[in-house]
């Protein structure tokens, strides 16, 4: 059979992944969601676990938008009007009214000139970097940037890439200086909120450095940020790292519809000329179907909720619960990373201890993510909890109680 020989090689690769500790293994399958009842947030049933209920402490749906009745109804209405799929890529009559309306409202939300939808934030990052990187471009990237940024740079083949120490603006400035005389264009790219730890960039310092050295390069210095974990989860009005750091001049902002907004897809907001250029050149946009019209309509409703008094109340509650959970962890003697983002990383600093605690939590009906070496540097192993506006104090108290019991063991 044609796949016999390659099958042997694939098997060896899988063994290597397991030995390195990075094999994902069998995926958990959610078979049912039980809606919130009383002081309980939604509970999840998992294939093979019978009727045992789990609380998700590892969901990106920071505001619980995916289960909101208004959002579900908006998707249903658009499905009845436009069907369930786009039927084509954007330039071959795959563009529908909800797509254009969503792009305009996202741009307005972020106070940018124009917006552009992608099938995912990962596709957005990979789609825009390649057309913006020339053979005379040097890219400077934070050490802990997301895998999408790392792979986008690899695919784009810039003249050079430089990696600066995580959140270290002095090192970033040193790297910019090293580029002088060696390229025509510099791109500084970073995450807004870093998904492993919940800490965030200081956009003000980042933008100031770009502006400072912009005149020294023929094609300038500009900034790109992926704030997928920030938008809708961070800041008083949910505008993410831009709002928290008091700086909205990042040149190109990427984010997602699939986390706090609870739907699916990614997007870019920037000036109109750049969007016009990217529609003509970004392969992940041109040759991929867009999100469906119903998804776009659901995202419009989620954005409307976020950008309202109701949304601000949800964000305030989310912040309150995050602070409450972090204090509970600190009181128990667990180490966390400073910050108010709902990603709460509990530093375990040992791979085997991380695995044991994640397994213990699962036994007790709590789903959390263990980040182990080599996914994170040795000594930075942690458990990532993610707070949602769906969580109640009773939920968090149950988790803290379980963590107390484990510590006492």
The average pLDDT value, as a whole number, equals 95
Q: What is the domain total for the residues?
A: 2
The secondary-structure class comes to alpha/beta
CA(first)-CA(last) distance: 53 Å
Helix and strand run: HEEEHHHEHEHEHEHEHEEHHHHEEHEEEH
**Unreliable residue runs:** none
Mind telling me which CATH architecture of the largest domain this is?
A: 3-Layer(aba) Sandwich
CATH superfamily of the largest domain: Type I PLP-dependent aspartate aminotransferase-like (Major domain)
Q: Which CATH C-level class of the largest domain is it?
A: Alpha Beta
Domain Aminotransferase class I/classII large: 53-402
Protein name: 7-keto-8-aminopelargonate synthetase
Keywords: Transferase
Organism: bacterium (Candidatus Ratteibacteria) CG01_land_8_20_14_3_00_40_19
